[in-house]
Design goal:
555 residues, mainly alpha, disordered N terminus, four-stranded mixed sheet, single chain
């Protein structure tokens, strides 16, 4: 969002005779950009226009369009091809302008069907009736209310007469920033966040190295430059996905940096959030250990040093907790991960002109969804329709890009994550049991030695040392066990391991099916949507786990 930036309006049309061309011509006359989505390749679509004047007008609009997306519709099933083009058009617009007589749909792909779908999707619709063009009607629910169940039967009932001021209000609402103060504050905070390069909280990485055998890397301490690193991770996608003069530059210059920023911030906040609770629980145990040293020290001045060290530990824990709470590491981690996943999946749907996992902004959404949907949809608006013709070769390249850059990559990530989280869960749990077991063993040995009279036969100085050591160990070992248990509970490592294993299994199944199928536009959109649904379901489950686990004091 740039101060003083002007809005760019785009008209998306199928360039059919009548209303489509009227709106396209009016948009061009107003200085808008024209993008076209055709149900067939351009030559086949030209057969729909019988007169020379109509074909000339069609050719003229094609030349003036910034991009022309030619679908591979079946000429023998033209209504279904018109429907597909209409749905692609709906996926790329904020406002539908329809010139409609109000009659029910004559079949698949008719005006009434597209209007009904737009109403159910929450898209504002301006209806101009040919018999009375001055009387404008509007179907719009700014609060995002769910439409009536019979909207497909009677879409006309969702419209109300309006004037130009009401239309202007609807357009203003579509372009406005989130209205809720908390959501707007979160958006502004995100947009003003600087790139993070150094991580001075490596405690979670050290925990994973110690208990899960994960190797430490430079990335645990130093985050690489955002754009260069994201371009590296997107290399497979960029090398495989089809290129065109319209869409590809926006993907590389707008979508890639935006996704990179959200992803890197999510990684950073993940590291500092997780490292903070590991640090706090572990250092709370060290504070107890420092206090327990008092059983060996009876000189007040020396003992004061131990108390001062314990106080320092407590103050550091309090400062870390307050700092993380103030800077909202937990919330920003969840929000940035949500945003990064949504933006990354836009690259999968963009070559097909589809919407994907990004939801349209609507009133009544939660604070997080409000600003994230607004920002992600703003990026979605920047993506033009592809300027190319859909053919088997084009579909094969999209399939390969999705398979190798998304499905296989995510399978690998979730398999590694499942193994790592399983080790963390098992070894932390086992370590806690061993510490409590060792405490119980010491207690049993001491009781037996006392009952046997062995302790009484030890000389006094050594007996006092043994008793103090026993007190120290039987207090410290369960404290360390409790710290590990707290880290174990906060991290939910077992749940994450099961969740990643389940996601990897689902992605493997869809990937196998996807790779074996003959490329087909409708089937490919369906498979990519299923892939997206799997990933977003995993994201929602992950959010549910951690939403109620903010940073807490080890108390």
């Amino acid at each position: 969002v740039q101060h003083g930036a002007t809005a760019e309006f785009v008209v998306i049309s199928s360039l059919a005779e009548g209303a489509d061309r009227l709106v396209a011509e009016a948009g061009l006359a107003a200085g808008f950009t024209l993008e076209a989505v055709l149900p067939f390749h351009r030559d086949e679509y030209a057969r729909d226009f019988k007169t020379e004047d109509s074909q000339t007008a069609y050719g003229s609009l094609m030349q003036r369009a910034a991009s022309v997306f030619e679908l591979d519709g079946n000429p023998t099933d033209r209504p279904r091809a018109y429907e597909t083009a209409g749905l692609i058009m709906l996926a790329n617009i904020d406002l539908l302008i329809t010139i409609w007589d109000g009659n029910a749909a004559a079949g698949v792909g008719g005006t009434a069907q597209i209007i009904s779908r737009a109403v159910s999707n929450g898209i504002p619709i301006i209806w101009i009736e040919p018999a009375n063009p001055a009387a404008i009607r509007l179907s719009w629910s700014p609060t995002g209310d769910v439409p009536s169940a019979d909207v497909y039967a009677r879409p006309q009932e969702t419209f109300s007469p309006v004037d130009n001021a009401a239309v202007a209000l609807a357009v203003g609402e579509l372009l406005a920033l989130p209205t809720r103060p908390e959501a707007r504050e979160s958006l502004i905070q995100y947009l003003h966040t600087k790139e993070r390069r150094w991580n001075f909280c490596p405690w979670f990485s050290l925990l994973a190295w110690l208990f899960a055998g994960r190797r430490l890397s430079r990335g645990d301490f130093y985050l690489p430059p955002v754009v260069a690193d994201t371009r590296r991770t997107w290399r497979t996608y960029l090398d495989t996905v089809p290129e065109d003069r319209s869409l590809r530059p926006v993907i590389e210059n707008t979508l890639l940096p935006a996704c990179g920023v959200a992803d890197h911030l999510a990684n950073y906040y993940s590291l500092v959030y997780r490292s903070t609770y590991v640090f706090n629980f572990f250092f709370a145990a060290l504070a107890v250990a420092t206090a327990l040293n008092g059983v060996f020290i009876h000189e007040p001045k020396v003992k004061s040093y131990c108390v001062a060290i314990e106080l320092a530990f407590i103050l550091v824990i309090l400062f870390t907790w307050l700092y993380g709470h103030r800077h909202q590491w937990h919330r920003r981690w969840l929000e940035c991960r949500h945003l990064a996943e949504g933006i990354r999946q836009l690259r999968l749907f963009a070559p097909l002109g589809s919407t994907g996992a990004v939801e349209r902004p609507r009133r009544g959404a939660g604070i997080e969804e409000d600003w994230i949907n607004w920002y992600a949809w703003t990026l979605r608006r920047r993506l033009p329709l592809p300027d190319c013709a859909v053919d088997p070769h084009y579909l094969e390249k999209i399939r390969d890009a999705v398979l190798h850059a998304e499905i296989e990559d995510q399978i690998g990530y979730h398999q590694r994550n499942a193994a790592r989280m399983h080790k963390l869960d098992h070894r932390l749990h086992l370590s806690g049991l061993l510490l409590f077991g060792a405490t119980a063993g010491l207690c049993v040995v001491f009781v037996v030695l006392v009952w046997l009279g062995t302790v009484d036969r030890i000389e006094a100085p050594h007996r006092i040392l043994i008793l103090n050591a026993l007190t120290f160990l039987t207090a410290l070992l369960p404290t360390l066990g409790a710290a590990l248990a707290a880290i174990h509970a906060q991290g939910e490592f077992r749940t994450l391991a099961e969740q990643s294993a389940r996601t990897a299994k689902r992605l493997t199944a869809i990937g196998t099916t996807f790779a074996a199928e003959e490329p087909n536009f409708a089937r490919m959109v369906d498979r990519i949507e299923k892939t997206s649904n799997i990933l977003m379901a995993e994201l929602r489950e992950w959010h549910t786990i951690f939403r109620t686990r903010p940073l807490a004091l080890p108390a």
